[in-house]
Design a protein that fits this description.
The protein has about 70 residues and is α+β, with helices and mostly antiparallel strands. The chain contains three helices and four strands; from the N terminus they run E-E-E-E-H-H-H. The chain has a four-stranded antiparallel β-sheet with strand order 1-2-3-4.
């Protein structure tokens, strides 16, 4: 698999990840090593600190998933 990592804003912590050749995945990473799938992994596979950082940079997704515990 080939991944393309990018940030929405230069000062973001989160890298969004394009899985080249695959459509419809929402992937992200904090370190370009571990890749999370937004719909499958958020929030239960994130550490509390990762969730805090993700929610800060992506309030629209935090609101979308607010019912997930």
């Amino acid at each position: 698999m080939k991944y393309d990592f990018y940030k929405v804003r230069d000062n973001d912590v989160i890298y969004w990840v394009d899985n080249i050749g695959v459509l419809g995945e929402y992937l992200f990473s904090f370190d370009k090593k571990t890749i999370f799938n937004l719909f499958a992994d958020y929030p239960h596979k994130l550490t509390p600190e990762q969730k805090r950082m993700f929610d800060k940079e992506n309030p629209e997704w935090a609101n979308f998933f607010k019912d997930r515990k």
